[in-house]
Specification:
The complex is a heterodimer of chains A (440) and B (394). Chain A is of the alpha/beta class and 440 residues long. The longest helix of chain A is centred in the middle third of the chain and has 24 residues. Chain B has a single domain, classed as Ammonium transporter fold, CATH 1.10.3430. Chain B is mainly α. Helices cover 51% and strands 0% of the residues of chain B. Chain B starts with a helix and ends in an 18-residue tail after the last helix. Classes of the chains: A alpha/beta (440), B mainly alpha (394). At the A-B interface, helix 3, helix 4, strand 11, helix 5 and strand 15 of A face helix 1, helix 2, helix 3 and helix 4 of B.
Chain lengths: 440, 394
């Protein structure tokens, strides 16, 4: 039996880059590192224009007492400018632009943890993860140390999320294939930190080689299990993952720790191990570069802050004029408004689509085929919410459960009438929030 | 691999998260890092990546650059290739075998009626869009499907104005005036058929299989014949064999007679995932159950059940009329209720009604209840209390 959840859709996988070994791109001309790459308060910038910075040097610190993760320089060089710019979502964020000196001078602060695992204490682990600025690298960007602290004593199972259910993306798959050990060692560090003796590594069944590889690696471990999930979008979603593995439907507003689970992305786990083995903070990540406009679709290990333009040039440049650039997967990713925007700690993919692929289809009438209802992993009636919103009946939209929507996009993907259902639901959610705010 | 198997063998009833109390943490204290050398032992599984970038010498071109403006839109950025017209085309294709059988049995006049019905339905759809100054919706093919369905529900002897008037009623009155595709309350083809019963002598003249009504003369010089159901109603017996019923060698409407070819079309729709099994199964199941408990004909019970299923409009309604998206419930549970309701009403009319057949009426009546069934069977939201295994409040 393969574990799965109710609802969801099968998307044409397009895992074109599954066989592409991760290539190292260590020398972008310049990087611009945003001070906010996580959930929580933006970092306070520690450098000024003209400063020399080294690789791994802390350039942004978390304001005292706030939730956040520090930011480090991902290359060595000189600070060219510090400016407020809009990020991908249009929010103003402070960017530190560093010009590469191509010397790769390592910051003196970087020091590997030379202790063996049994000698490291839980507090030490949390402190090191906090200093390394590690966040949830699957896309959410929740600071890892805060997640660990909040789960201590509550969680009984660590789930390493290797589902990678978004089409096109293969960054996690390559990580499993090439650095499976790092994921497992990261999981072991987490076990130590949380005092948990039960780890599940959850992988979708469209990655049989990765399952084979990880299973071989945990052969002798009694506390780590590799579990096969049915390939279905959005299996990588936290709540769908818990539902698939335990049968428990975690309602909105509850945390996984409330049902004894704590979930980490595969790349986060590997980054945690790196913070111990090399002492390297979270300054680079694997990005899948794909789409019909890219000459050589690849998986690239690149410094955080590398611009999309430079990343694409590294992948052989363009073969078509792109009309849309997506940061993340095509189902839930954000479309970028400029190729100058950088890769952040949470960017799992950069997809460049031509006009032919990204054209928005015309919207037709709903024929009530029910595909959106069958696809909805939150068991809602998307067509009903959209129709109610279009008619201005916000109360009805709320009754249909608009607020429980996770915006996975399954409904809009499968709709034969090409109705942008999830987009209408987002608008409805906004109206509901406004209404609630008014009442209070 | 054994790990995976072990894990899979575990019963889901013992959830992972709930299990595993922290009993003894000494084994965690003893944890050691896995040596990276262990990774090499399994490196052979990675063999596929060697050929990864070979033959990938893409032409690097400077001709293309980033445009000044990029398209920015909310996710999802990809959509499935399914479209409304593809679905309608599938329905149209699935109706063809039964229609061809009808032409084979009832002669070329049946073909003319079919062509006339489809053509007039499409024309009315086009004209209605023109009158409303809206973009033409002929391309979604729903009018063509309605036209074909209507023709299949007519006798081969009807005068040629019947399908034209029927198409007008279906496309303009039942569908168009309610707001077009997706907004109609009842099935257009069925409503048109029932509307056409206003001309009972034209609508209820059926011929025996193999009797071809003249292309021009129509029903003028032919002998009318009873349908299996009207024969049962009047005489309480049936002369046609079960084989004739299933293959369609009986009197009746053009596309209604051959249960076999209709089921082939229905199977096509099921395989293409255009429809789900719920409505046909519960509709036909209910008819069978009632026939089993209250048999009308003397003799073998099984024969009785099969006769009720394969005569009249049960098969065409179960697979093509009741499953119409617009006028059937959304959820699986709702579909089962809807199908059962159709079955009960069909049998009530057959047993007690003035008409010998009640399939069309049953679907139309259930169409009116769809909004209520939808309301009753609204799925429970993910994680909402009362759901399968929601989290208890602490």
């Amino acid at each position: 039996m393969r574990y799965t959840f109710k609802g969801g859709i099968h998307v044409n996988e397009h895992k074109n880059t599954a066989a592409c070994r991760v290539r190292l791109f260590s020398s972008p001309e310049r990087v611009s590192v945003p001070m906010s790459q996580h959930i929580g308060a933006p970092c306070v910038c520690l450098v000024k224009k003209g400063d020399k910075v080294a690789l791994g040097q802390k350039i942004g610190k978390v304001p005292d007492g706030a939730l956040g993760a520090p930011v480090h320089s991902s290359i060595s060089g000189t600070v060219e400018k510090i400016e407020m710019k809009q990020d991908a979502r249009g929010v103003l964020v402070e960017y530190v632009t560093i010009v590469n000196d191509f010397e790769n001078t390592l910051s003196p602060d970087i020091e590997p943890c030379r202790k063996r695992l049994p000698e490291i204490s839980s507090e030490e682990i949390i402190e090191r993860i906090k200093e390394a600025g590690i966040v949830g690298m699957g896309g959410a960007g929740f600071p890892a140390h805060a997640k660990i602290s909040s789960a201590v004593g509550k969680a009984t199972t660590i789930i390493i999320n290797c589902a990678e259910c978004e089409p096109y993306l293969t960054a996690n798959y390559r990580l499993m294939m090439e650095r499976g050990c790092d994921i497992i060692n990261g999981a072991k560090i987490l076990m130590k930190a949380l005092g948990i003796r039960n780890v599940i590594i959850a992988v979708e069944d469209n990655k049989p080689l990765a399952i084979k590889k990880l299973s071989a690696l945990v052969e002798s471990e009694s506390m780590i299990e590799v579990i096969t999930l049915k390939t279905k979008y959005p299996q990588g979603d936290e709540r769908r993952l818990i539902s698939a593995l335990t049968g428990i439907e975690l309602p909105a507003g509850k945390l996984p720790a409330d049902v004894g689970c704590v979930i980490f992305n595969a790349e986060s786990a590997a980054a945690i191990y790196e913070a111990f083995s090399d002492g390297m903070p979270s300054v680079r990540r694997i990005v899948t570069v794909d789409g019909d406009c890219v000459a050589e679709p690849s998986n690239v290990l690149c410094p955080v802050g590398t611009s999309v333009g430079e990343l694409v040039a590294f992948c052989g440049g363009l073969v078509k004029e792109p009309s849309k650039i997506i940061s993340g997967g095509p189902m839930m990713g954000v479309s970028l408004w400029s190729p100058e925007l950088p890769v952040t700690k949470t960017t799992s993919g950069i997809l460049l689509f031509s006009e032919a692929v990204s054209r928005e289809p015309e919207e037709y009438s709903c024929i009530r085929c029910g595909r959106c209802v069958r696809a909805c992993p939150s068991h809602l009636m998307p067509f009903g919410i959209a129709a109610a919103f279009k008619a201005g009946r916000i109360d009805e939209a709320e009754m249909y459960g608009a607020s429980s929507c996770v915006e996975c996009g399954c409904c809009a993907f499968g709709c034969p009438s090409k109705i942008p259902l999830v987009q209408y639901i987002r608008l409805a959610k906004g109206e509901i929030r406004k209404k609630k705010a008014k009442k209070q | 691999m054994s790990k995976v198997k072990n894990a899979e063998a575990k019963n889901k009833a013992a959830p992972y998260a709930a299990a595993a109390p922290i009993t003894d943490s000494s084994d965690i204290e003893k944890l050691e890092f896995t040596d990276a050398k262990a990774q090499k032992d399994v490196s052979e599984v990675d063999s596929e990546s060697a050929a990864a970038r070979e033959g990938n010498d893409a032409v690097i071109s400077d001709r293309y650059s980033f445009p000044r403006f990029l398209r920015v839109s909310p996710s999802p950025h990809i959509k499935s290739s399914d479209t409304t017209s593809k679905i309608m085309l599938d329905v149209f294709i699935s109706l063809i075998p039964a229609f061809i059988w009808g032409v084979f049995v009832f002669g070329p006049r049946a073909l003319v009626i079919g062509a006339l019905s489809v053509a007039s339905a499409v024309l009315f759809e086009y004209l209605f869009c023109r009158v409303r100054k809206k973009k033409s919706t002929v391309g979604d093919l729903s009018a063509a499907v309605t036209g074909l369905l209507l023709a299949m529900n007519l006798s081969s002897t009807v005068p040629y104005w019947i399908p034209v008037v029927g198409s007008f009623f279906a496309v303009v009155v039942v569908k168009g005036l309610f707001g077009g595709l997706g907004k109609n309350i009842v099935n257009p083809a069925l409503a048109a058929r029932v509307f056409l019963f206003a001309w009972p002598s034209e609508m209820n003249t059926f011929v025996a299989p193999g009797v071809h009504a003249g292309i021009i003369s129509g029903s003028a010089d032919i002998t009318a014949s009873a349908t299996p159901l009207s024969q049962i109603k009047m005489d309480g017996t049936l002369s046609a064999s079960l084989y004739d019923l299933i293959i369609g060698n009986v009197g009746g409407c053009i596309g209604e007679v051959s249960a076999l070819f209709l089921m082939i079309g229905g199977a096509y729709l099921l395989i293409r995932r255009v429809i789900t099994w719920h409505i046909p199964a519960s509709y036909i199941g209910t008819v069978a159950l009632i026939a089993l408990i209250f048999p009308r004909l003397e003799g073998d019970l099984l024969n009785n059940v099969l006769t009720e299923i394969f005569s009249g409009g049960v098969i065409i309604c179960a697979f093509f009329m009741a499953t119409d998206y617009v006028t059937s419930p959304i959820t699986a549970k709702g579909k089962l209720i809807f199908g059962a309701g159709c079955g009960i009403i069909t049998m009530l009319i057959r047993y007690f009604g003035g008409y010998s057949e009640g399939a069309s009426f049953s679907v139309l009546i259930m169409n009116l209840l769809v909004w209520y069934i939808d309301k009753l069977t609204m799925p429970k939201h993910f994680g909402v209390k009362g759901g399968k295994a929601s989290v208890k409040e602490k």
